[in-house]
Amino acid sequence: MQEMTVAELIEQLEEMDPEATVRLAIQPTYPFEHSLAKAVQAEDGTCYLAEGEQLGYLSDRASEDIGWGR
Hints:
This protein is an alpha+beta fold and 70 residues long. Helices cover 21% and strands 36% of the residues. The model has no long low-confidence stretch (mean pLDDT 93).
């Protein structure tokens, strides 16, 4: 899988509702959703999105939209 750049992330986010809640989808074979706690940039320039709390299972629809299928 190709790594995403900040510019590519911003481009995708610009197409979305700016008031929408942000979640992290984790583990394609046993999908969970997590809140997003923080975004930081490390000394090496890498951007990290820090997971907040595990909120529960990812919906089937979200899994399908991501391309994980269920």
